[in-house]
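User: I'm putting together a small comparison set for a docking exercise, and I want a reference complex before I start. The sequence is below, and the ligand is PMV. Could you produce the 3D structure with the ligand included, as structure tokens?
Assistant: Of course. I'll restate your input first, then give the structure tokens for the complex.
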Amino acid sequence: MRAIAKAQPNIALIKYWGKRDSGRNLPAVGSISITLAELFTEMSVKLDESLDSDQLIVNGNADERLLPRVQRCLDDVLGNRRKAARVVSQSNFPIAAGLASSASAFSALVVASAAAGGQNRTTAELASLAGQASGSAARSLYEGFVELENCDDHISVKSIRPVDEWPLSVVIAITTTSAKAISSGDAMEISRQTSPFYSRWVEQQSVDLNAARSAIAARDFEQLALIAEHNCLKMHSVMWASRPPIIYWNTATLDCMQVVRELRSQGVAVFFTIDAGPQLKAVCLPEDESRVQDALAATAGVCNTMISGLGAGATLVASE
Ligand code: PMV
């Protein structure tokens, strides 16, 4: 059985940083994200008993480093008595560089592997399986503005506003195409164990979630901008105060932040957010996307820019 699924990365406006149960990969905090439209990972899963072992091809090359994580996810979906799988993943954007490639990859993987195994799972089940592999991947099952709630012993994910009700644009400034030095999973564990700010971060998250939820419900761009930048900088402060410190930014990241702040002081509706990598994501109204892109593309150290609208959740493309 073979199935192909496609999923888009999502960008958190209110961030997930830290696990409450690392065995089950349950987050310590809830989060709110936007699912992108133009960036995607297409994932093909073929279950084949003639194969000696699982195979993983990422963007045309065999990937032994990522294989164990993919195998764990396949076991979670299909059980560990499953047939061997050939998994082929293709993304149209840099991977492992803070562009949420694990979110699009693992959400596409659960959809494709469940279909290849002949399973008919609900989106909630698929989200929970994706979340076991990568916390942020659970959100890529859903469209538009998405909230992940942290319940007692599980996560609950839902779309809180569809794309057509508040179309926004995201301009991504790529400041390096190198893979990051430390994975978000390892880094958040260091923060939990060593950052003096970690417990306050967890305690305050519900305040930020409430503010973002209200801003999204009211389509209040200014309020969303304030709370999203605050939450992003707070997450990075937790990282900076960790031991060893976790610093994902480079000088171009800081220059891009300054450019976004200047644009805002000139009246452009735009704000930034930054994840576990040096890329800056500028969220703006669609009519301003060219102006924001031109300003970021002209910033020293920016090697490329990409624009995306908001899009749909992971989908099954084919199954045979
Ligand atoms: O899902 P992970 O393990 O790649 O962690 C994602 C962490 C951030 O991107 C920094 C924040 C988030 O909520 O996506």
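Residues 198-217 form the longest helix (20 residues). Residues 12, 15-17, 31, 102, 134-136, 184-185, 275-276 surround PMV (CB under 6 Å).
User: Thanks, that's exactly what I needed.
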